[in-house]
Amino acid sequence: MKKYSFYTDREIEFLKQNYSKLSKRELAIAIGRNYMGVCWKCRQLKLKCKVFLSDTEKGYLAGFLDGEGSIQLTTHQSPKGVIKTKRRPFTWGAYITITNTNHESIAYLNRLIGGATLVRHYGDRKKPIYRLTLCSNKIRIVLPQIKNLLIVKRNHAELLLQALELINESHYKHIDHDKELAIIYKKIRGLNNVIRKKEPCMNLDTLPLNFHDTS
Fold it and tell me: CA torsion sign, 49 to 52 to 58 to 60?
C-alpha cells in the first residue's frame, strides 16, 4: 500500500494561487498528485473560485460566447448500482464550451477565466480545433457577470443559471427538482437546436420523474 505523503507548503500555495485559473485535473497534473486527492485538499482548504472581469474583458468574453460558444444542460448516466438505491438513473451537468481555431484566443480566455482546454484534430483539416470548457462552479461565477451583455445566447444563460440554482438545492438541501430541470433541459435543447449524432440525447419522457416512487 502506497504511503500517504503530506502536502508541502509549496504545493498548498500553488493550489491557492491557481485554483481559479486551472481545473482540478490540471492542478493534479501540475503538482504530481492524483485527482481525488486534489479535490479533497481543495475542499479542506475551503478554496473558492474568484474571477473578476473588467468591462472590456466582459465584453470580449460575451462576444466570444455569443459567436463561438455553446451553453448546455446535460444528463449523464449514473454509475452502476445507483438504481438499486432508488436514486434517479442519471445526474445533471452544466457546461459552457468555446471553440476556435485560434490558439492564442483560447489561451487568453483560459488565463482570464480558467477552465479546461482541449485540442482536437479532425481528419484532413489543416488547423486543429481548440476548446475551452467551463463546468458548474466556474459558470456560477463567470456567467452572471456577462449575462446582460449577451445577445444571441442570453436566454440560454438565464435558463442555465436557473438550472444551477435547482441543482444546488437538489444536492445540498435534498429537494427534488427533476421535473423543473427536465423542462429547462428541453428548452435549452430547443434553443440550441442541436441533433447529437454520436451521443443520442436521453429521452426524459421515458423516465419516471418521481424516482423515489417504487410503486
Answer: negative
Specify the 3-state DSSP secondary structure of 72: strand
Give ∠ CA 133-124-128 in degrees, rounded to 5.
Answer: 30
Count Cβ atoms below 10 Å from residue 22 Cβ, excluding itself.
Answer: 20
60-117 confidence digits (pLDDT tens): 999 999 999 999 998 876 555 444 444 566 788 899 999 999 999 998 998 888 887 8
Backbone phi, psi, residue 16, to 5° = -65, -40
DSSP string, 129-198: EEEEEE-HHHHHHHHHHHGGG-SSSHHHHHHHHHHHHHHHHHHHS----HHHHHHHHHHHHHHHT---SS
149 φ/ψ angles, rounded to the nearest 5 degrees:
-90, -10
How far, rounded to the nearest angstrom, does the alpha carbon of residue 185 sit from its chain's CA centroid? 15
Report the alpha-carbon distance of residue 104 to residue 117 in Å, rounded: 12
Lookup: cell for 23: 481545473
Angle CA 47–13–172, to nearest 5: 10
Is pTM, for the whole model, over 0.90? no
Helical packing angle, 154-172 and 136-146, nearest 10° = 140
Per the CB < 8 A criterion, the answer to whether 142 and 94 are in contact is no
CA–CA separation, 187 and 161 (whole Å):
13
User: Is residue 24 within 8 Å of residue 42, measured between CB atoms?
Assistant: yes
